[in-house]
């Protein structure tokens, strides 16, 4: 796609991170700025220091994917959720591997979705298994981030899932090509913000158009990009307003599709069985035409119970054939960051991990992060201290979403760093 | 004085490579490619020499298929003045052929210094710099960890990383230098420079135009993964260790 775009004259610059929104004196967005590179871990300038650059334009479109760092700021500052459908966004964490399996077991085009085990009745989530070509399969587990048990480790649940007899038999004899993780939107229709702001718009998953029952958001993301492009073209050429994007979105099949599928996910707030029962009714009888729209539960970061009402979960050790430990999996994600740079995961209040996260919630970030970036290590005073291994970060945004006090802020690291997905 | 820097487009150092199922080589399709890290160091050194006033032009050159133009654009964005692309087709070109091409280019460009990375991270050959020096009958300072140029005396003092420590050589220019890791920290190509580099002209040559015949005396028969590491064994006594080393591992 990039080659085609460049042939048409589009300039593409990979390896640079947009870290800041630029405003004019009327609070209108006029562009973005990239971050400084060549800054050492302690903040001092290295000999390779280069100042970031400002990129200005008539229209700025943000397409950062789910929970985009700049998009979230824009949504907050311009109050775009209130101006849209009104509900907060809800999320899930997806952990995925691409395997190369044995010839006889491979059925190209085959699709499998499961729900239930290994998750309990109160945790929404399920798996996907898609047979692609070249004997490759894509397998993953998606867990809603409003899970209550702070001892839950999505990574370990995924490893457990692979041991189910039906899945294990498929994977045996195969090898893992790649590993990765990413948060995805589950808020659907109720959580769509007004994506237009003065000076630009938000497209794709940064706004949130994923169809949850279909577990598919790429098609709506692409369509939203096309609608924004048409609106932007009209702004530049015919003096129209960017609001045209919002209007055309509401008239498009995205709206219709998300409207019809709006009640599936919220129904699971009542538990797995009621959720399944309602989903069956919704799918076969009501078909999205019920005159009511279910609301989401608490925001994901508020849904975590305190650790004392749960017991730690003992996860089985990885067997190295079908299940693996985090370092092995991280190796397969080709993740790399320039080592000597400031930590890109910022704590709004550095005292909160030891004061709140650890005593009240048993340090959930040390469990939900699929890259084990967050570790509580003994300090010299017989206590535990949070240590952030930012170099491991998979850029999944789970921490930005799930941290109970919303204390962790995911910001962009030096451009070019991050996971090296190729077949994902 | 002109400096010629030879760079190579290789699989990015952070990528975990896989062997192709037919064992003919390593999977390179859909894999991130970048400039060889040692070549970046070579280019950085050339730029610093120019910035110190000892040279006035840095020319980047690469041998490879069409996509290698991207590597040259990176070199231009880092600060090279001109770039030359020798398109030798899609098949990998081995060091001896690359050396012959570089010799031909040296005769065209007449540089006072040819700087290369000590080796490429895909084949780890560590041959091209030495072979070019041999073909040109130029002095060579390989594994350079420090380079000081004396413009007036036309001499390069090179500190080399050798097995025993550091060796200092004095080379009369023109000379060939290959760079090692500790020589410098390459600069970032800034966004404005990358934008400007897109419109710079890259001179193209084919091997035929340089009167070089690409033929390979080597054939890659098979590429296999290294054997998987076996689990370690904890022994209970020194005697058991000696016994295992003697009878199982057969290293004593």
From TrEMBL, chain A:
Where would I find the ETF-QO/FixX C-terminal domain in this sequence? 320-422
> Where found in the cell?
Mitochondrion inner membrane
Domain ETF-QO/FixC ubiquinone-binding, chain residue ranges per copy = 91-184
User: What is catalyzed by this enzyme?
Assistant: a ubiquinone + reduced [electron-transfer flavoprotein] = a ubiquinol + oxidized [electron-transfer flavoprotein] + H(+)
Residue span of the signal peptide, if any?
Answer: none
GO cellular component term of the entry, any: mitochondrial inner membrane
Alphabetically list the UniProt keywords. Answer: Electron transport, FAD, Flavoprotein, Iron, Iron-sulfur, Membrane, Metal-binding, Mitochondrion, Mitochondrion inner membrane, Oxidoreductase, Transit peptide, Transport, Ubiquinone
Pfam families in alphabetical order:
ETFQO_UQ-bd, Fer4_ETF_QO
Q: What is its EC number?
A: 1.5.5.1
Per its UniProt record, the required cofactor names are: [4Fe-4S] cluster; FAD
What InterPro entries would the database entry show?
ETF-QO, ETF-QO/FixC_UQ-bd, ETF-QO/FixX_C, FAD/NAD-bd_sf
| Entry keyword annotation includes Chaperone | no
Broad EC category:
oxidoreductase
Gene Ontology molecular function: 4 iron, 4 sulfur cluster binding; electron-transferring-flavoprotein dehydrogenase activity; metal ion binding
Which protein family is it in? Answer: Belongs to the ETF-QO/FixC family.
Role summary: Accepts electrons from ETF and reduces ubiquinone.
Q: What is this protein called?
A: Electron transfer flavoprotein-ubiquinone oxidoreductase
Q: Which organism is it from?
A: Phoenix dactylifera
- In the UniProt record, the gene name given for this protein reads LOC120110820
UniProtKB/TrEMBL annotation, chain B:
Residue stretches making up the Electron transfer flavoprotein alpha/beta-subunit N-terminal domain: 23-214
* Cell compartment(s), UniProt: Mitochondrion matrix
Q: Does the keyword Coiled coil apply?
A: no
Its GO biological process terms?
amino acid catabolic process; fatty acid beta-oxidation using acyl-CoA dehydrogenase
A molecular-function term among this protein's GO annotations:
electron transfer activity
Of which family is this protein a member? Belongs to the ETF beta-subunit/FixA family.
InterPro entries for the chain: ET-Flavoprotein_bsu_CS (IPR000049), ETF_a/b_N (IPR014730), ETF_b (IPR012255), ETF_beta_N (IPR033948), Rossmann-like_a/b/a_fold (IPR014729)
Recorded protein name is Electron transfer flavoprotein subunit beta
One Pfam entry name: ETF
Q: Which UniProt keywords apply?
A: Electron transport, Mitochondrion, Transport
Any one Gene Ontology cellular component term annotated for this protein: mitochondrial matrix
Describe, as the record does, how this protein assembles with itself and its partners. Heterodimer of an alpha and a beta subunit.
Role description: The electron transfer flavoprotein serves as a specific electron acceptor for several dehydrogenases, including five acyl-CoA dehydrogenases, glutaryl-CoA and sarcosine dehydrogenase. It transfers the electrons to the main mitochondrial respiratory chain via ETF-ubiquinone oxidoreductase (ETF dehydrogenase).
């Amino acid at each position: 796609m990039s080659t085609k775009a460049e042939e048409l004259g589009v300039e593409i610059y990979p390896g640079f991170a947009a870290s800041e929104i630029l405003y004019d004196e009327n609070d209108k967005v006029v562009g973005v700025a990239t971050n400084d590179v060549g800054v050492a871990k302690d903040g001092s300038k290295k000999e390779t220091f280069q100042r970031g650059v400002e990129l200005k334009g008539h229209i700025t479109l943000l397409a950062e994917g789910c929970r985009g760092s700049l998009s979230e700021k824009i949504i907050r500052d311009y109050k775009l959720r209130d101006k849209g459908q009104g509900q907060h966004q809800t999320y899930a964490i997806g952990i995925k591997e691409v395997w190369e399996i044995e010839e006889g077991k491979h059925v190209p085009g085959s699709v499998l979705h499961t729900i239930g085990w290994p998750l309990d009745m109160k945790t929404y989530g399920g798996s996907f298994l898609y047979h692609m070509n070249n004997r490759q399969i894509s397998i993953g587990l998606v867990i809603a981030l409003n899970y209550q048990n702070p001892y839950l480790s999505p990574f370990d649940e995924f490893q457990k899932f692979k041991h189910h007899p039906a899945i294990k038999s498929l994977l045996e004899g195969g090898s893992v090509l790649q590993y990765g993780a990413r948060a995805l939107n589950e808020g659907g229709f109720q959580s769509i913000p007004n994506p237009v702001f003065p000076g630009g718009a938000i497209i794709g998953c940064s706004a949130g158009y994923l169809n949850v029952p279909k577990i598919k958001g790429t098609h709506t993301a692409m369509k939203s990009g096309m609608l924004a492009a048409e609106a932007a073209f009209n702004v530049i050429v015919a003096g129209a307003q960017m609001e045209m994007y919002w209007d055309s979105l509401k008239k498009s099949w995205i709206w219709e599709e998300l409207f019809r599928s709006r009640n599936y996910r919220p129904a699971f707030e009542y538990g797995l069985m009621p959720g399944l029962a309602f989903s069956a009714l919704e799918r076969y009888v009501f078909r999205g035409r019920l005159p009511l729209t279910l609301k989401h539960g608490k925001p994901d970061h508020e849904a975590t119970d305190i650790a004392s009402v749960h017991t730690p979960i003992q996860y089985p050790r990885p067997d190295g054939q079908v299940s693996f430990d985090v370092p092995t999996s991280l190796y397969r994600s080709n993740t790399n960051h320039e080592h000597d740079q400031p930590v890109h995961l910022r704590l709004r209040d550095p005292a909160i991990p030891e004061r709140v996260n650890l005593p009240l919630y048993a340090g959930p970030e040390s469990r939900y992060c699929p890259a084990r970036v967050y570790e509580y290590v003994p300090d010299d005073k017989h206590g535990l201290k949070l240590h952030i291994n930012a170099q491991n970060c998979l850029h999944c945004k789970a921490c930005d979403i799930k941290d109970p006090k919303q204390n962790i802020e995911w910001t962009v690291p030096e451009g070019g760093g991050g996971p090296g997905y190729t077949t994902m | 004085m002109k400096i010629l820097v030879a760079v190579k487009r290789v699989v990015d150092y952070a990528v975990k490579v896989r062997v192709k199922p037919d064992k003919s080589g390593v999977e390179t399709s859909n894999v991130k490619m970048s400039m060889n890290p040692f070549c970046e160091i070579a280019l950085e050194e050339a730029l610093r020499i120019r910035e110190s006033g000892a040279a006035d032009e840095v020319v980047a050159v690469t041998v490879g298929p069409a996509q290698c133009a991207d590597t040259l654009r990176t070199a231009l964005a880092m600060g090279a003045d001109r770039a030359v692309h020798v398109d030798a087709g899609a098949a990998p070109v081995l060091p001896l052929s690359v050396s012959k091409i570089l010799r031909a280019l040296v005769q065209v460009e007449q540089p006072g210094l040819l700087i290369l990375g000590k080796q490429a991270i895909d084949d780890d050959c560590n041959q091209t710099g030495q072979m070019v020096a041999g073909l040109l009958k130029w002095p060579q300072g390989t594994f350079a960890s420090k380079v000081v140029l004396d413009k007036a005396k036309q001499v390069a003092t090179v500190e080399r990383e050798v097995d025993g420590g550091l060796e200092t050589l004095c080379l009369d220019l023109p000379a060939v230098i290959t760079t090692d890791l500790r020589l410098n920290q390459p600069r970032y190509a800034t966004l404005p420079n990358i934008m400007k580099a897109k419109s710079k002209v890259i001179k193209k040559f084919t091997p035929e135009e340089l009167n070089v015949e690409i033929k390979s005396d080597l054939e890659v028969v098979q590429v296999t993964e290294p054997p998987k590491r076996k689990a370690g064994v904890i022994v209970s006594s020194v005697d058991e260790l000696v016994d295992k080393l003697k009878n199982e591992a057969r290293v004593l």
